[in-house]
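Check out a protein:
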Amino acid sequence: MIGHYHPMTVLVRQIVSALSEQGFQVYNSPELETEANNFDFLRVPADHPARDSQDTFWTVDGRVLRTHTTSSQANIRATESDSQDGSRPNPPFRVLVPGRVFRNEATDATHLATLNQIDGIVVDEQVNLGQLLATVKLILEIAFGQQLKIRQRPHHYPFVEPGLDIDVYFQGRWIEALGCGLIHPEILAKMDLDPDRYQGFAFGIGLDRLCMMRHGLTDIRHLTKGDLRFNQQLMVGT
């Protein structure tokens, strides 16, 4: 029997392949995280509703199923075992972190309890918003297979400053695509990097939503059914 790659696998591989040519390396971050890594390190306030059990899956020992791949910023330079080549990244570095994230949400046409994200982190002595916008535009054009117009809107994320939401103009309307920004100096310092010397940018992309738009889906649950005939249909023309 001839099988087919899942549409999500195809999308992730295309993004990783293109950004590998830009010097990015893949890093594997744990799905089971500490509260410190998932929230505290990223400057998420102690009273933020995301910490509530109604939004986040907590284990009996006080750990969490990560709510975003952004938690990788907490351990990316703290270990030498999880990068693809087993090394601890030293600046300048460009890292991609694809993986599953978990939200305590009811499943419906636009929500799942298990989602797919990819985070990107770039640190160097000279990093700017222009480089960030060029990178995310490349990713979006890979995802949609065409040149696109994008726009940015200010948005507060505690781990970047300034923070931005990126919208893409697709099929006659603007659609929110991802969040990003310049890494907050406090985060750089927590990474054991001198914020007076180094700057960085980071982006986080919800891949399920991109995959839905890419294939014209209206129900996110189609991506989890494992129907080979459905996958084959989506792969036509990809």
